[in-house]
Every structure is written in C-alpha cells, then in structure tokens.
Amino acid sequence: MVVAMEMVSELNVQKLDGMIGKGGVGLDQTIQSVDISWLNIEVFTTVTKSMYNCYKTVNMPKQLIFNVSGEVKAGQLLAIMGSSGAGKTTLLNVLTTRNLGKLAVNGEVLLNGQAVSPENMASISSYIQQHDMFYPLLTVREHLSFQALLRMDGSLTNEERNECVEHMIKKFNLMKCAKTKIGGKFAFKGISGGEMKRLAFASEVLTNPSLMFCDEPTSGLDSFMAENIVQTLKTMASEGRTIICTIHQPSSQVFELFEHLLLMADGRVAFMGKRTEAQQFFSSIGYAICDEFQESSFGTEMSAETLALNKSNNNIKAIEVAVGSDNYRVGVFRQSVALFWRTYVLTIRNPRFLRGQLFRAIIMGLMMGTIFYKQGANLAGIQNINGAINIITQNNAMMTMMLSITTFCMDTAILCREHHNRMFAIFPYFIATVIIQFLMFITISIVFVVLLYYMIGFYPTATAFFRFICTTVLMCTSYAISSLCSTFQMASTVLGAFISPLVLLSGFYVNTGSVPKWLVWAKYLSFIYYGYESNVVTQWIEVTDIPCNLEPDSTNTCFQNGVQVIEAQNFTVDSFYIDSLAMTGMTLAYLFITYLGLLWKTRKN
Predict the structure, then answer these.
(1) Residue ranges of the ABC transporter domain (predicted)?
(2) Residues in Cβ contact with 349 at an 8 Å cutoff, skipping those fewer than 6 apart
(3) Domain over 36-306 is classified CATH 3.40.50.300
(4) pLDDT digits (tens, 9 = 90+) for 384-441
(5) Which residues lie across from 47 on neighbouring strands?
(6) How far apart are the first and last CA of the chain?
(7) Which residues of the chain form CATH 3.40.50.300?
(8) Main-chain phi, psi angles of 100, to 5 degrees
(9) What is this structure's pTM?
(10) CA angle, corner 437, sides to 435 and 441, nearest 5?
(11) What number of helices (H) and strands (E) belong to the chain?
C-alpha cells in the first residue's frame, strides 16, 4: 500500500488543564492548544438480509470504516471530503463520540496523546451538526443568552455573560437580526439560512472550545454564504482552535480556503495532507487534474479500488489530561431558572398554547353553556347534566394530552442535542416543563369551568364549585404517552388507542355495573372514570328533592333525590375523596413514567 499522508511521529506535550468545565470564562480567555489524533479506527454495523426466501432473515455484519488513522494539530482547519456514503459523517461521529447508535467502534481517539471519555470530549469540544435546531419563537439574542446562562462558567456575573453574548453577536455579524425571532423551515419565516448557521457557530464559540467539529456547515447555502461560513471557520482556526469539518462538493473558492484535506472513499483514507500537495499526489498515481476546481471534486469521484490507502505507524506520546469532575457547567438551580424562563417564553408566545387554548376554552364554554343552559333537577335535566359533566371531563383530558404530546414530541430532537451538549440534566427540564404546563392547564380549566358552571346550572354552592374545579385540575395526567413516543404521529396514534377504552369505562356510556366481571377491574385504570364519578357525586350528593313529571303509565323511573341518581350510575356517594386520592396517585405515577420516558429517549438518541 502506498503511503498517501505523512503523520508526525510525536505529538506536542501540552496539558488541557482548565479547559474542562471552564468554557467561555471571558472574552480574554486564551484558547488551549489541542492536537487530536485517531488510530486504526474501524466501524461496524449490522444489516438484515433475506436468506433463501422472504420469510427468513439473518443479521450480517457490515464494515463502514476501514483502519483509518489521522492527526490534526492545534490551529489547523481540516476538511474531510468524499462522495456520499464514503464515511465522512461516520468518522466525524466517532471522533466526537456522538450519534453512534448501535455502531461497534474499534480504535483510539486521542487528545494530545491522551485517551478521553465521551463526557470529557464533550467538555472541551463543540459539535456543529448539519441540521440546525432552534426554538423558532426565541430571538437571536434570547437564544444566545440562554446558551450563555447554561454553558458558560457558573462564576460569571450576568454582566459578563451579557458582554460575551453581545461580543458573539458582533463577531458573527448578527446585529441586524439580534431582535428577530429565529423561525424555521416548518414554522414562520425568521432569520436567513446563513444567519442561522452563524448563530449555530456563535452558540458553540460562547463556550470557547479548543476543538470544533462541523458536519457539512455549508449544506443548503449558496456559494457566497458557503464561502463566508468557511472563512469564519478559517478565522476561528487562526485563533488557535483545532477544527475538523466535512464538506461535500465545495466550490473552487471554498476549496481554496482549506489548507488541509482528508479524502475518503468507501470508508478508507485516500489522501491526507496539505491541499497544495493533493494534485501532486493524484498525478503520482496516474490521475491528472487540470485545475483546482476539478481537484476539489476529484476525491468525491474516485473509488477505493483505484486509490492508494494509508497505513502508518504512529509513536503517540501519552500525556496527562486535566479532567473536571462536574458533568454540567452550572448547578441544578441555575439550570432550572433558565429552563423556567425559556419554557414560559415559548408557552406565552406560541399561539397554539395559552392564547389559543384560552380562546378555544371560551368559545367552547359559551357554546356548551348556550346548549345546556339552565338545566333543572328533573328527569330530562339528569341526563343533560350528566352528559355535560362527561363532555367537560373528556375535553379536559384530551386538551392536556394533545398539548403535552405537542411539547414533548416536537422538542425531542432539541432536548437530546442540548442534553448531550451538557447544558442541563433531564430533571430540571422535566420540572420546568411540567410546572409551566400545569399552570397553563389549570388556568384554561378554571376559565372553562367558570364559564360553564352557572350557565348550565350545576349545584350552586361554593363547596360543589371548588370540588368541581379540583377534579378538573386533577385530570391533567397525560404526559406519559407523549414521553414514550418518538414522533407526534406515533403519539397521536397511541393516544387514540389509549383513550378509547378509558372513555368507554368512564361510567357514562356503559354502566359499570353491566361490565363483565372478568373486565370490571379495568375501570380502575381509567382516570376519566375517577373524574366523571367524582363530578357526578359532587353535583348530586346535596340534591334532596327531584320533582317527578312522568305520566302515571310511564315506564321510566323517577329519582326522588340525588343519591338515587348517583347509585343508578353504580357509583358510591362517599367516593369523592377516594377518587381524588386515586387521581393524585395516577398523576404522580404518570409523571414518574414521563420522567423515565425522557431519560430513555435521551439515552436512546
């Protein structure tokens, strides 16, 4: 095999003291020198293939990366190039120890000659992934302020953090859009694609990383914006940072900005060295290149069989790496405060959340109040009042379920990325989201019930009213479904299958006394059953006289008081407190399952 790249046999001995856990401690902080090297990297995955017939499959191993080695020194900008499927992003993920899924990896990744754990790699590096993910409703300045609060050193004052944020806004030319909401492809039009990419860089540079990884930073940008982005990378490398990025078919102007190249084909290294040496190398193995533009695309068109592969022995000198003990740069309290603020802002600004649901509650409340207006305690009123109670109970349950699904499912990708960036733990995120949403649900539920209660003619005492309110609030127990599903579509499907039997077993559509004995236990799993029973008891327990207006020959049954109405539903008159305890217990259980679901999601991703 022809040696296509020349590697330094010994790395400069430099400690990484002070880097881990001290990201972005000030504008004047020096950048620590970091050399990164990787030795004999091999990556394997498993593919499923049919054997003999379509009914029998077998898992077959497949190798994605073949014995790849390389080195990038401090202050260098390395471009990893190759055709689609060449292994560029896979190699980058191996170096960052992220997004590996079920891949099996062999080999070593060293920083200044010292092996580091994934946690420590995340502490001193930043990874700008191909797809930018932001909350559309935050402005550029708000996003950077949130990042600064959680990713910069906890000893900084608010003034110092704000100074760093303003410095990043100026450095990455974001002044004109600092007060603009970010927006996004599937939201509203906000900042441009180039501004969004610069915002991604600014978010990472806030932590003053010594090592940066970028996955196709010019993807989706025109040639002018792509050149600006690469020029930004080159400037950051000149400050002493070690930067590695993947690039797919750059323009000639962009290609000329790179000084060091790593060309890959079919999971192997075809060439690694200076850009100016690439043409000489290809010519030496029989491939003539006419100009630099062709040179930039040449490596993406070569096959592994025609390229000389590198295999070098490297004498790597191990050194001591200073490792911080904290997993996060700020404590749980500061994480919680920042997450409370962001969740509150997103909830207030999202038209589908508080404002939209309040409008919906008012309109639906007025419509129901008009239809069920002033129901009396008579035979017709019994059916109508119980029907209204059933609608209120189901509406509240469905409202909380749909909003929680929207929150947890739509935020999964950003949650996983921010969590793996060591910005916050799952528990503060969970607490902030649950409390803000509970406050929103309580507000909406109270508005809905207040509009309906006296319009419909529910029992007009303060005790009955507040019991009704408490029961309605306790119905907000549906987080678990959304936390266990990976997509909104999946959660919606599961929601339909989950809610249908709970509604049928609530006691309104099917009298619980007529449910088969072998299935009667299932009603105790329905929080809608507890809510409906509790509200029926609250409404009728104090009604002592119900007039009977039936004809003498009527076959219908007259109820003389509210207790008979309750017993006809196969409910018990003293079940209010039992139902309240049951709903409280189910709420806590659902919340615990939700927390476990979020932990599982972030670890799986």
Answers:
(1) 49-291
(2) 137
(3) yes
(4) 999 999 998 888 888 777 777 777 777 888 888 898 888 999 999 999 998 998 888 8
(5) 60
(6) 38
(7) 36-306
(8) -90, -20
(9) 0.79
(10) 115
(11) 20, 10
